[in-house]
UniProtKB/TrEMBL annotation:
Residues in coiled coil: none
Stretches assigned to the HTH crp-type domain: 15-68
Matches recorded under CDD domains: HTH_ARSR (cd00090)
GO molecular function: DNA binding
UniProt record, GO biological process: regulation of DNA-templated transcription
Source species taxonomy: Bacteria, Bacillati, Chloroflexota, Anaerolineae, Anaerolineales
Domain of life, source organism: Bacteria
Record protein name field: HTH crp-type domain-containing protein
Classification via Pfam families: HTH_24
Length: 162
């Protein structure tokens, strides 16, 4: 079960506070790419559950401290994140191996890879590991990577569309 964005945000908040107890809600919001109000909501929830304590150090300055329960939560969320990442890696790799098998069955030894990001990188490394040559152009099959979707297009399919 993948970490929800709420769990991911909790993990990042706990990690950031552990590294910098003087982190502000604004700096946490920037790190998460969300509004300050969203960080405020997460912090209030984590405080209410006993994962974080807050201390006033100046009139308008707060210091956040992770409780032992918060450390345990951060550890559990980290392990869940690692587990989910490996699950995704294995899933992408299995898809890439299936595509490579189809490419070889059609007699090709080279492919073009279109896409960016971690999924494309796993595909690239799997192709290289399996001895397929990566080319920039030509009449090689194309592996299209868009987000978590991996699709194979053979040269004759591209010609049929035009």
């Amino acid at each position: 079960m993948p970490l929800s964005s709420e769990s991911t945000r909790d993990l990042i908040i706990l990690e950031q506070i552990e590294q910098d107890p003087d982190a502000t809600q604004a700096s946490l919001a920037t790190r998460l790419g969300v509004a300050v109000g969203t960080v405020n909501w997460h912090l209030k929830r984590l405080i209410a559950k006993g994962y974080i304590k807050v201390r006033r150090v100046e009139r308008r300055k707060l210091r956040y401290l992770i409780t032992p329960e918060g450390v345990a939560l951060r550890t559990r969320l980290t392990l869940d994140y690692i587990r989910d990442s490996f699950h995704l890696y294995r899933k992408v790799r299995a898809q890439a191996l299936g595509i490579i098998e189809k490419v070889r069955q059609d007699g090709y030894q080279a492919v073009r890879l279109e896409g960016e990001g971690e999924v494309a990188e796993v595909c690239r490394l799997t192709c290289l590991e399996q001895g397929l040559t990566l080319v920039d152009n030509g009449r090689a099959p194309v592996i299209h990577v868009r987000h978590l979707t991996i699709q194979l297009e053979f040269p004759n399919e591209a010609a049929d569309e035009h």
